[in-house]
Structures are given as C-alpha cells and as structure tokens.
Design brief:
Shape: flat
Number of helices: 7
Helix content: 55-70%
Order of helices and strands: HHHHHHH
Largest sheet: none
Number of domains: 2
C-alpha cells in the first residue's frame, strides 16, 4: 500500500482504519477506474476481453517488465525491459502484427 499511495497515506489508512469512497480511492491512485455498481461487471468483462483479444505474449511481457522492474534499480530495470522487448520483436506475434498493419487487417494473435 505504501508503494502505491505513499507512506504517509498508508500509515494514516492503516492506523485509523478509515475506509475510502470509490472517488477517494481514485484520487489517491489506489484504483485507476471507478464505475457505477450496475456497470462494474460489464466494464470488467469488456476490459478482460480487450486484453484477451490482444497480443497476449506482449501483454505478458509488459506485466513482467512492470511488476519485476519496479523492484530493480533503474539501470537494471531498463536492461530487463530491453531484453523483454528483444524477445517480443523476434516473436511470431510481432511478425503477425506488422503484417496485419501493412495489410490493413486485424491481427490474428497466437501468443507466440
């Protein structure tokens, strides 16, 4: 929590037991989206389908880069990100994405 909202706010929330409204959670960047309750399921499924229909190999490497990189010194994180990008550029999905772009069609991602 401290890494996400800062030490001061994390201490405050934990020591006081204060709860946040969805808008307050958005303001302190604890969440990045807020929807009316009746839209939450549909919006969540829409988001999941968008990711699932994208270049999943790239999405997986993006997640690795962000989640692992935040724990590394900056110079190591930059090298790590570069290594992951090199893997992506040599992937079947990269070739498919470029072909789809040139041919002005939707890509058929394989996850490889």
């Amino acid at each position: 929590l401290a890494r996400q909202v800062g030490h001061s706010k994390a201490l405050d929330l934990n020591l006081t037991g204060e709860t946040l409204t969805p808008q307050e959670a958005l303001e302190i960047k604890l969440v990045d989206r807020v929807f009316p309750q009746e839209e939450t399921r549909a919006k969540t499924l829409e988001y999941a389908q968008k990711i699932a229909s994208s270049a999943t190999y790239a999405a997986s490497n993006i997640k690795l880069s962000i989640m692992n990189g935040k724990e590394m010194p900056l110079n190591a994180a930059i090298r790590y990100e570069g290594e992951l990008q090199n893997l992506l550029f040599r992937s079947q999905d990269a070739k498919e994405g470029l072909s789809a772009f040139i041919e002005k069609r939707s890509a058929d991602w394989s996850g490889q």
